[in-house]
Amino acid sequence: xxxxxxxxxxxxxxxxxxxxxxxxxxxxxxxxxxxxxxxxxxxxxxxxxxxxxxxxxxxxxxxxxxxxxxxxxxxxxxxxxxxxxxxxxxxxxxxxxxxxxxxxxxxxxxxxxxxxxx
Length: 118
Prior knowledge:
Layout: E1 6-16, E2 31-43, E3 47-52, E4 55-61, E5 65-72, E6 79-85, E7 90-95, H1 99-108
Antiparallel strand pairs: 1-2, 1-7, 2-3, 3-4, 5-6, 6-7
């Protein structure tokens, strides 16, 4: 990474993180999504922000982070990172074609990446 900032475009998917199976069509809980390049992940060592035009930004800090984990849907097309924070009931998946590079960049900025793809 060239600087101490990360900035990249991708897609976004938001769903209730308490769902056992977020893919279930029978779920009464809604979700929101937008395709590439509608979402943006940017940040530094102190804060990450995932934003899109039609939603409130997700702000991730070292105080509210629960997890950042790889998330797969239909590899290689559906690869992303799942972000969970303590002050929201939703999980946010940031879809990207460059997941490995973004994971390396996040780790170099001090953000913990854990787990195997869900």
